[in-house]
Write a sequence for this structure.
């Protein structure tokens, strides 16, 4: 996809299966451009695109009737009531008037705004507006909803609630979801699949449990206390003496080079022997953040056949 | 007291469900956006402050019609013949200002608001395309303008007919009805086009409204300067955006109008060209519009 002065997306070749898919990348990575292409609002300069079996370029109206879209912008007609907003957009997407009315209420109840549905949008908080955007996206019963930064501007509690609703929409009603985000941990939490973009290029795609999750090795987090100075270094030295690969990052040690069960045993012995205090001991997990950072030399990212490069998006 | 039927009672917890019924497609989307835009323009479903101006403009447009019909009903025909008070084409002369002000209100409300409040991006994620969206909006502006261009003359026709002062015979009545409708469509089309063009060029409703009024009120002065000051052909009158729609109305009713030196085809062509030009500006502007999502 090329604009007059910018190549927004380049050499993108991807296939997204049903489920909850996260579209991740830093600001300017091309997420919104990809969404616009999926909705048939932009045409690719070259290449082919198929969404729900339809060509967005030639069958845009038919396709968009089956997709619910929640834009990133939080701008609404302030004097319109939430119920009227959702009902109207459901009608525009082709629902009969009576059906649009009842489904507007149903979807607002589903997102937790049942009691607030007759409030003007201009009086609603950012969190409530994000929920209204989700409600209007699902009200016309789409097969797919595309949400652009659905947790933008939300506090942690609101973000958890929003993510839970998104998961519920897929789990209970079978509506596939694509959500774009630059917050990797929330994508890790709710998505089955990931598409990662960086500067318009695909840097990873695949199932979440292949791209992130248990990755071999053990991670232990120690407690540095004044009465036991150098404890962390002593643990690291003991582990190295045992012939293990050790990465030392502050109070966190990541060890590899043996079977995980053996690593756990050796870690416990080293901590006890060094007189250190242990805060956390567990299997080493690879996060999407690691993928954007370029992965670990001893843990090649061959599970999903993904090629990783580029800058890392914000992690908060 | 019996408990008959209690055993059949169920609690219907409907909740959110899948919808497998028919969908109305692009035509339904246009219909819905048009209707919502007309409602919004008139302040329906909105706080009271949004109703004041549209109600005032509509009321001003209907006042002469109500007065004429009232005179026809209250005064005997030998004292005053209602048709002598004002002809149908003359009627527009009483409400020109109301029509222009209403046009300056409607199009900015219909077009500019969507760009500012995010609704344009929302609409374009539905079955609507830019073209069908603009069709819905043009229809909405024309319908809203129809309230002041069609309603009042229609009220006069119906009032005179009920009073027995109306056109004699079914043929004459239908001819008048046709003229009322065609004249209203012509005025609405021209003003829809011009006001939408002005509204497509700015993101501020006030600027759009001022622009519409300025274009409509300065073009007569420009035409006058060119013809009388510059000694150019009287056909330069066709650049008078304020006069041409109402001149066409006069010709539709078979009256000579305010500028009898112009042939009817020139008046018709001027209206067609201005309407097409205005719509072309809107289409061009929206084809290049970058929509924030």
């Amino acid at each position: 996809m090329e604009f007059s002065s910018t190549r927004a997306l380049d050499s993108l070749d991807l296939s997204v299966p049903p489920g909850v898919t996260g579209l991740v990348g830093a600001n300017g990575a091309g997420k919104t451009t990809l969404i616009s292409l999926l909705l048939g609002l932009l045409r690719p300069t070259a290449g082919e695109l198929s969404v729900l079996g339809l060509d967005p370029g030639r069958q845009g109206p038919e396709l968009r009737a089956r997709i619910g879209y929640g834009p990133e912008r939080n701008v609404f007609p302030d004097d319109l009531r939430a119920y009227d907003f959702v009902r109207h957009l459901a009608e525009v997407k082709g629902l009969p008037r009576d059906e649009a009315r009842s489904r507007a209420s149903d979807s607002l109840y589903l997102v937790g705004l049942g009691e607030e549905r007759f409030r003007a949008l201009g009086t609603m908080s950012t969190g409530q507006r994000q929920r209204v955007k989700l409600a209007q996206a699902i009200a016309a019963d789409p097969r797919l909803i595309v949400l652009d930064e659905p947790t933008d501007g939300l506090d942690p509690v609101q973000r958890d609630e929003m993510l839970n609703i998104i998961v519920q929409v897929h789990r209970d009603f079978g509506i596939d979801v694509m959500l774009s985000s630059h917050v990797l941990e929330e994508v890790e939490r709710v998505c089955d699949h990931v598409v990662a973009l960086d500067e318009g290029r695909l840097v990873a795609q695949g199932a979440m449990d292949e791209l992130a999750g248990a990755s071999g090795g053990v991670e232990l987090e120690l407690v540095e206390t004044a009465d036991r100075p150098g404890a962390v270094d002593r643990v690291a030295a003991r582990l190295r003496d045992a012939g293990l690969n050790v990465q030392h990052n502050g109070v966190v040690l990541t060890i590899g080079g043996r079977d995980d069960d053996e690593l756990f045993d050796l870690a416990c012995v080293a901590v006890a022997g060094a007189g250190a205090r242990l805060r956390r001991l567990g299997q080493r997990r690879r996060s999407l953040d690691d993928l954007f950072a370029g992965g670990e030399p001893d843990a090649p990212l061959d599970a999903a056949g993904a090629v990783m490069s580029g800058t890392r998006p914000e992690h908060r | 007291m019996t408990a008959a039927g209690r055993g059949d009672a169920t609690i219907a917890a409907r909740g959110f469900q899948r919808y497998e019924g028919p969908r109305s497609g692009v035509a339904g989307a246009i219909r819905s956006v048009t209707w919502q835009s007309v409602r919004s323009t008139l302040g329906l479903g909105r706080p009271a402050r949004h109703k004041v101006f549209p109600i005032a403009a509509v009321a001003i447009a209907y006042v002469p019609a109500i007065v004429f019909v009232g005179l026809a009903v209250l005064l005997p025909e030998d004292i005053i013949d209602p048709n002598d008070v004002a002809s149908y084409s003359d009627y527009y002369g009483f409400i020109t200002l109301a029509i222009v002000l209403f046009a300056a209100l409607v199009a900015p409300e219909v077009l500019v608001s969507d760009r500012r409040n995010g609704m344009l991006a929302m609409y374009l994620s539905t079955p609507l395309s830019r073209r069908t969206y603009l069709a819905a909006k043009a229809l909405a502006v024309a319908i809203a303008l129809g309230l002041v261009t069609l309603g009042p003359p229609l009220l006069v026709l119906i009032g005179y007919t009920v009073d027995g002062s109306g056109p004699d015979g079914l043929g004459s009545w239908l001819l008048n009805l046709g003229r009322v409708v065609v004249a209203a469509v012509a005025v609405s089309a021209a003003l829809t086009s011009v006001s939408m063009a002005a509204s497509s060029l700015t993101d501020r409703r006030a600027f759009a409204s001022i622009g519409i009024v300025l274009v409509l009120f300065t073009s007569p002065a420009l035409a006058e300067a060119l013809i009388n000051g510059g000694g150019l052909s009287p056909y330069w009158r066709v650049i008078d955006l304020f006069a041409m729609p109402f001149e066409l109305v006069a010709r539709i009713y078979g009256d000579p109008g305010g500028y009898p030196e112009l042939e009817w085809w020139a008046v018709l062509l001027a209206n067609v060209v201005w309407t097409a030009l205005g719509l072309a500006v809107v289409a061009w502007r929206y084809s290049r519009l970058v929509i924030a999502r």
User: Anything to note?
Assistant: The first helix of chain B runs from residue 25 to 41. Chain B touches chain A at residues 14-19, 21-26, 28-29, 32-33, 36, 45-47, 50, 113, 116-119, 121-129, 132, 291-293 (CB under 8 Å). Chain B has one domain: 25-287.
